């Protein structure tokens, strides 16, 4: 279960790296508009906000990824703390998105599902 949890959290972190790319590097490109919606004018008007938001997603991915690496190499205390902080924040961000905008349920589940499942598997492995 430990390995499964680490893999799921790592996949969640990779998804958040992709979200960073979309929000911070490709925000005005067609691929980001297809993913998030909006017009080219809206994308240009919100580019600064998206740039900043993308970095939040990158930082969450880095925290979770470093935590996964630490657990995998034997430093469970620091690793689990970082995994909980990074993946837990990913899950809570998905909850906040859906709570604020219920029509974004799919987006909220997309960003929260992998880290949530990873945290459950880690909890079973570490507490079981």
Architecture overview:
By secondary structure, this protein is mostly helical. It contains six helices and no strands. The longest helix is centred in the middle third of the chain and has 26 residues, at 47-72. This is Membrane protein. The chain crosses the membrane at residues 6-27, 54-72, 78-99, 108-127.
Keywords:
membrane; 128 residues; Membrane protein; DUF1304; transmembrane; mainly alpha
Quickly describe the structure:
This protein has 6 helices and no strands. With 128 residues, it is mainly α. The protein has one domain.
Draw up the topology in text.
Layout: H1 2-25, H2 30-36, H3 40-45, H4 47-72, H5 76-100, H6 105-127
Organism: Cellulomonas oligotrophica
Protein name: Membrane protein
Pfam families: DUF1304 (PF06993)
Q: Which radius of gyration do the C-alpha atoms yield? A: 16 Å
Mean pLDDT: 96
Strand content is under 5%
User: How many separate domains?
Assistant: 1
What class, by secondary structure content?
A: mainly alpha
Shape: elongated
């Amino acid at each position: 279960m430990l390995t499964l949890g680490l893999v799921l959290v790592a996949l969640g972190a990779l998804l958040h790296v992709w979200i960073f790319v979309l929000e911070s590097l490709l925000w005005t490109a067609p691929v980001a508009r297809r993913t998030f919606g909006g017009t080219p004018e809206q994308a240009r008007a919100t580019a600064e906000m998206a740039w900043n938001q993308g970095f939040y997603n990158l930082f969450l991915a880095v925290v979770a990824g470093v935590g996964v690496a630490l657990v995998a190499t034997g430093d469970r205390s620091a690793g689990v703390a970082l995994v909980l902080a990074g993946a837990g924040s990913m899950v809570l961000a998905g909850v906040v998105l859906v709570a604020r905008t219920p029509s974004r349920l799919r987006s909220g589940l997309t960003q929260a599902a992998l880290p949530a499942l990873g945290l459950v598997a880690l909890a079973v492995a570490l507490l079981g």
